[in-house]
Design a protein that fits this description.
Length: 399
């Protein structure tokens, strides 16, 4: 057993990370039901899809400011405040009676997500360093996807009863609050690079700003394509004759299960693949997955394609944040965590705006084929841009 898993802080961070996948994808199986319930709204088709990505818009706007606050005020206060906002806004869909009101609640939910995700990412950089940090990021993405597997599968069953019931799941943030209060102490000034008397207070890799920028752009583009899955998959399956909302839940679960496995593996193989080889491998897996989803006509093939997509995102996601944290001075971890978080969620928000015109003109299968080509292009671009970077990340000591 990895000694890292004996650290209660690691478990607290992994638990907090499960909230990020819950913020958007949990209500995916409920989208067709919500659209039918509010069918009298002429914009129901667009508004229901925006319910998935609305939190992402607020995260993209708020996360950099949340990052600055976590650098100035500490990590715990933003984290715990974010949990409360998350629970209150996330469950609001249970009782709100219009798509517009639910959309507003989803925007407020994004504020909570921004504080939770930024603070917990900064804590990873504070508590751990070097290869341990990379392994924890892999475990965290695994926890995120295992949580997502349970949440989305459960949401599929709840949505079959009532399309508003999946909003209940957001209340789990309140259940997590006491455990996170105990297991995630405020880091010392030496850990965060604010103690000038400490040794090596915030060393960084030369040119870290450029590396962080590249990682942020790559993350944004990755999620522009990736989030066609939760926003378009339920409708794609209905077009194939699979109208039961549980089918979307099962397909999403296969993706999250595969992502959980590969994200753990990525922490161990990343030193060999490097900061370029790891995301490129992920892009090629996702390209294969999008192609399989586009070509498939049975639930089994759709699940296979989703599993390939999950395997790919499990390789990519830890790389973006780990690379950014590894090269950044300790005193700027909150800001950098916020910037990468903002990039990820900006990509999520823009995704339906990019994918909806494609599926309108090319159909759902055509849209997924375009996504496959997009990931091949991203792999090529990343190789060209970072081909002169070192094969392995420079380990940065910040404590």
């Amino acid at each position: 057993m990895d000694r890292l898993l004996r650290d209660p802080r690691a478990w607290g961070l992994m638990l907090a990370a499960t909230l990020t996948i819950m913020s958007n994808a949990t209500i995916t199986p409920a989208l067709p039901g919500l659209q039918a319930r509010f069918a009298d709204d002429p914009n129901a088709d667009v508004l229901t899809r925006l319910l998935i990505t609305a939190p992402s818009l607020m995260v993209a706007i708020i996360a950099p400011f949340a990052g600055v606050l976590t650098d100035r005020l500490g990590r715990r206060k933003p984290l715990l405040a974010g949990l409360l906002i998350y629970a209150l806004a996330g469950t609001a869909g249970l009782y709100l009676n219009s798509l517009q009101a639910i959309l507003v609640s989803r925007l407020i939910l994004g504020i909570g997500v921004a504080f939770v995700m930024t603070a917990q990412a900064a804590l990873i950089g504070d508590y751990f360093q070097g290869p341990v940090r990379g392994r924890l990021m892999g475990y965290q993405i695994a926890a995120t996807n295992i949580g997502g597997l349970m949440f989305v599968t459960g949401a599929g069953y709840l949505a079959a009863i009532d399309p508003t019931w999946p909003f209940i799941i957001y209340g789990l943030a309140l259940v997590m609050l006491p455990f996170l209060w105990v297991t995630l102490p405020e880091p010392t000034a030496a850990m965060t690079g604010h103690d000038p008397s400490a040794d090596n207070p915030g060393q960084s890799e030369r040119g870290w700003q450029v590396t962080v920028t590249i990682m942020a752009i790559a993350a944004a583009l990755t999620f522009v394509v990736f989030y066609a899955v939760p926003t378009q998959l339920p409708y794609h399956l209905r077009g194939l004759g699979m109208r039961d909302p549980q089918n979307a839940g099962v397909a999403m679960a296969s993706m999250m299960f595969a992502a959980a496995i590969t994200s753990v593996v990525s922490g161990w193989i990343r030193p060999w693949l490097g900061r370029v080889g790891t995301p490129v491998t992920g892009y090629l897996l996702m390209a294969a997955g999008f192609g399989t989803v586009a070509a498939g006509h049975t639930l089994g093939l759709e699940m296979l394609g989703m599993a390939l997509i999950g395997a790919g995102i499990g390789m990519c996601m830890p790389t973006f944040i780990t690379t950014a944290l590894n090269v950044t001075p300790a005193r700027h971890r909150g800001l950098v965590s916020g910037l990468v978080t903002a990039a990820i969620f900006l990509g999520q928000f823009l995704s339906p705006l990019a994918s909806q015109p494609l599926v309108t003109h090319l159909g759902y299968s055509g849209g997924f084929y375009v996504g496959a080509v997009g990931y091949v292009i991203l792999a090529i671009l990343l190789i060209l841009i970072l081909r002169r970077k070192p094969r392995q990340d420079q380990v940065v000591r910040t404590t």
